[in-house]
Automatic annotation (TrEMBL):
Gene3D superfamilies: P-loop containing nucleotide triphosphate hydrolases. Coiled coil: none annotated. One of its GO terms (cellular component) is membrane protein complex. This is Lipoprotein-releasing system ATP-binding protein.
């Protein structure tokens, strides 16, 4: 089965009002295990709307989202939340790290919420931090970290619960080229070793070219290719 299947997604805002906008207008996408898809879209095209729907943070007006073949349309809230927390990893542009907790805790808390023992959660968090070069910042709070360090901690948090699907909005946007490469390599390593599937929104066409394939959002639909 594909990890993610989107079928004819449509989504708009302010229906029936003068300021109505149609953002998604028939989006289809299938992402297989171990596949990394670049999502290229100009600002305002509906990239966040699409990622939020795929990650079960929002619902389409019509169309279906299936994760590992399971249709999410009529799921109850509890099952939906469980899938979002266990199976989907989300990396936001603005991180949304918990400010009062350390980098390490930001990565252990979602695991402990899933019943992982404290020591195991810490070991996994340290291992993830190490793969992206921020293990030496484990005890620091987000405010004490640079934007790039926060971004890497957010990357680790998204992967903490071993999701089957990773959704990311410009995950390397703040990083210098060497660090960006390191994070991207860490991501590809995880994808290849675990069968994770990923949809990664980016404006960086060089980065998009290194993914398995690219799609771009044009007039509310996805078309193949980055440009
Ligand atoms: P992107 O992430 O590509 O910049 P978004 O998905 O955030 O785009 O937004 C796509 C379009 O939908 C924009 O025109 C935006 O103004 C509009 N939009 C997004 N969210 C809302 C909302 N809650 N209400 C009204 N319009 C919205
Ligand atoms: P919690 O586990 O704290 O109850 P949720 O499972 O509701 O949080 O959400 C997980 C993450 O997604 C949180 O970081 C939350 O801030 C973020 N989030 C929830 N809803 C939205 C949304 N509509 N747009 C962007 N981020 C969201």
């Amino acid at each position: 089965d594909p990890i993610l299947t989107l079928r004819d997604l449509r989504k708009g805002y302010n229906h029936g009002k003068p300021n109505e906008v149609r953002v998604l207008n028939g989006v289809d996408l299938t992402v297989q295990p171990g596949e990394v898809v670049a999502l290229v879209a100009p600002s305002g095209a509906g990239k966040s709307t699409l990622l939020h729907i795929a990650g079960l943070l929002d619902t389409p007006d019509t169309g279906t989202v299936a994760i590992r073949g399971e249709d999410m349309t009529d799921l109850g809230d509890r099952r939906r939340t469980a899938i979002r927390r266990n199976d989907v990893g989300f990396i936001y542009q603005f991180h949304h790290l918990l400010p009062e907790f350390s980098a390490l805790e930001n990565i252990t808390l979602p695991q402990m919420a899933n019943g992982v023992a404290d020591a195991d959660a810490k070991a996994r968090a340290m291992q993830l931090l190490d793969t992206v070069g921020v293990a030496h910042r484990a005890s620091h709070r987000p405010a004490e970290l640079s934007g790039g360090e926060q971004q890497r901690v957010a990357f680790c948090r998204a992967l903490a619960n071993d999701p089957v699907l990773l959704l990311a909005d410009e995950p390397t946007g703040n990083l210098d080229p060497a660090t960006s490469d390191r994070v991207f390599d860490a991501l590809m390593g995880l994808v290849r070793s675990t069968g994770l599937a990923a949809v990664i929104a980016t404006h960086n066409l060089d980065l998009a070219a290194r993914m398995d394939r690219a799609v771009r959002l044009v007039d509310g639909r996805l078309v193949a290719g980055a440009a």
